[in-house]
Structure formats: C-alpha cells, structure tokens
Design brief:
Elements (H helix, E strand, L loop, with lengths): L1 E6 L4 H16 L7 E6 L14 H9 L3 H17 L15 H12 L3 H13 L8 H10 L4 H9 L4 H13 L7 E4 L3 E4 L4 H18 L21
Parallel strand pairs: 1-2
Antiparallel strand pairs: 1-3, 3-4
Helix pairs in contact: 1-3, 1-9, 2-3, 4-5, 5-6, 6-7
C-alpha cells in the first residue's frame, strides 16, 4: 500500500512529522507492505536564496514579526524537534529556494533513494546549516546516499525533473493539501501535520485493512496431489 507524503525542505514540521510517522511505521506489523513516496511542495515558490540572511530575518519580514518573536518561535520549534531526537540549529539555517532540492529528490526516487535524499536534505537544512539550493551541496548529499554525482550534476545543470516537481505541487491541490507535511494513505485517507505516532498508526491500520480486503494475497500452492477436474479427469 502506498503512502504519499507532501513536504518542503524548509518546513520544520515536515522533518518532525517524518520521525513521528517512522515511529508509527516501526510499530506496524505489515510495515514491509507499505511503500512510502515523497512528493514535492513549495511553501514559498518565490523565495530567493540568500545565504547571508538569517532565518529569523526572513520570518520577521515574511510574517510581520519582530526579530525577537521570530527567534522565540524558532526556539520553540527546536524544542519540539528535540522531543523526537532531532537536533535543530535554526540559527545556522540558510534561506534557500527549494525547487532544485525537490528536483534532486525526484531524481533520487528513480534510483530507489527518495527517502534517503529527503533525510539528507532535512539534516542539511535544519542541523548542518547547509545551502540546499547550492548544486555542490546537493552533489555532496547525493554522494552520501550512493548516487552517481556525474549523472546528478547533469540533472541539476539542466531542467530535468522540473515537470515532476510541478506535477506534485498541482496534485497537492487536488488532494486538499493546504500545508505540509501532508500524508495520503492509499489515496483514500489523509493526515495533516506532524501528528503523534498513535494517530499515524491508527490511520495505517484503517487504510491497510481496507486495502488488504481489496487486494487479497494470491494463494500459494503448498502441495499437489491426486485430484479431479470438472471435465471428469482424475489423476
């Protein structure tokens, strides 16, 4: 059964939601039958990459906050992240447009490494203070998860996987995602936000139960023996 997760690299609750969903999946008995697919979403498609600008300054300008309030909000989010074992350093975060980062994930998905790419991007942005719009950074992250850097360099220097990113953003509107993280289970049930693991677990149990009824496992022939068929043949 497929679980699709719409997220953006610069969304702090997307990384937190990833950890909470993973905690739920670890408790799910049929976890080996769950296919997770990461989908692209941009909270601010028009954002400019500004390595010299602090996240506090960006938030203050974007939301009309004071710098002090922006700093307090980031401290609060960091404390929530710490509860699920994440070490946020938002004072080092680089304000960056996420479009190329999403293209990187889309490419990684074709290599079966979408989840690995998403994890590395989150860590790079929230913990390591790296510029996730920088191609050299993305090449480094690709190398860390075993992706051919020459192929990835070609992708990043062109426009490949741009349509896939835009398609995901369009699909987000169709499935009702107004923010991220947004989890869609079997295209039937949705969970919005970084919910607690028990909420994700309940959604997995309900959606998988229905999926399993609609997709029964084929019978495995344990042994052959003497039998008769409708045409009267017995052997």
């Amino acid at each position: 059964m497929k679980v699709e997760i719409w997220s953006d690299v610069m969304c702090p609750f997307c990384y937190i939601g990833k950890r909470k969903f993973e905690a739920a999946l670890e408790q799910f008995p049929q976890k080996d039958k769950i296919q997770v697919e990461w989908k692209s979403f941009q909270l601010n498609p028009a954002i400019k990459t500004e390595p010299g600008r602090s996240l506090n300054e960006y938030l203050a300008d974007a939301k009309g906050w004071t710098l002090e309030h922006a700093a307090q909000m980031n401290e609060h989010v960091s404390s929530i992240a710490a509860e699920v074992g994440l070490d946020y350093h938002l004072d080092k975060a680089v304000v960056a447009n996420s479009f190329d980062a999403h293209r990187f994930v889309q490419y990684a998905k074709t290599k079966g490494k979408g989840d690995d790419a998403e994890e590395q991007l989150f860590k790079a942005y929230f913990t390591d203070g790296k510029n996730t719009a920088d191609h050299d950074t993305l090449l480094e992250l690709g190398s860390q998860i075993g992706i051919d850097t020459n192929e990835l360099k070609t992708v990043l220097e062109g426009t490949e996987f741009s349509d896939e990113v835009r398609k995901d953003i369009y699909e987000a509107q169709q499935v009702g995602a107004r923010g991220v993280p947004f989890f869609v289970l079997d295209r039937k049930y949705a969970v919005s936000g970084a919910q607690q693991p028990e909420t994700f677990l309940g959604a997995l149990e309900k959606s998988f139960g229905e999926w399993e009824k609609a997709n029964p496992a084929p019978l495995i022939n344990f042994a052959d023996g003497a039998s008769c068929t409708p045409d009267g043949k017995c052997d």
